[in-house]
Amino acid sequence: MRESGLLRRMALLEAAGFLAVVAIMWLDEVLDLPHKLFGFQATPVNWVEGLIETTMVIGCALVVLFFTRTLVHRLKTLRGLLSICCVCHKIRDDAGTWRPVESYVKEHSEAEFSHGICPGCAEKHYKNFLPSSEKSA
Question: CA-to-CA distance for 65 and 58, rounded, in angstroms?
């Protein structure tokens, strides 16, 4: 749900920016702004040129909106405060369900998990299974 809201806001802002560019292009074409503002030689309205420029800007807008959509769909980040159990380390999701850290993080990011054991935990929990050379004195 957050992803679609972000995408919608970004698309609206991008569309507004491209529409502003098209509006400025047409104002320039119709009002001949360089002539009025800077005294340059007056030019007649060229409807074909205006339509071609508008088509090019709309084409660029579609490409930008497509790539923005693609990037937002690929973007998966963890944000905010996570409730985590201090005993089993499960995380409470938005629905109130307690889930293993691995499944929660995998669903909300691109992270993959690989399990191992640190030397301290190996010593504490698996001391009887360690080779004698790895046991601390």
Answer: 10
Q: Alpha-carbon torsion 9, 10, 15, 17, what sign?
A: positive
Q: Is the pTM of this model over 0.70?
A: no
Please report which helix (H) or strand (E) contains residue 92, including its range: strand 91-92
Q: Do residues 54 and 60 touch, judged by C-beta distance below 8 A?
A: no
Domain boundaries, the chain: 2-74, 83-129
Query: 70-73, long-range: CB within 8 Å, 24+ apart, which pairs?
Result: 72/3, 72/6, 72/7, 72/10, 73/3, 73/7
Three-class SS state of 128: helix
Contact indicator for 71, 10 with CB cutoff of 8 Å: no
Rounded Cα distance, 94 and 54, in Å? 45
Each of the 137 residues of the chain gets a pLDDT tens digit; together they read 466 788 889 999 999 999 999 999 999 999 998 899 999 999 999 999 999 999 999 999 999 999 998 888 777 666 677 888 888 889 998 888 999 988 888 887 777 888 888 888 888 888 887 676 655 54
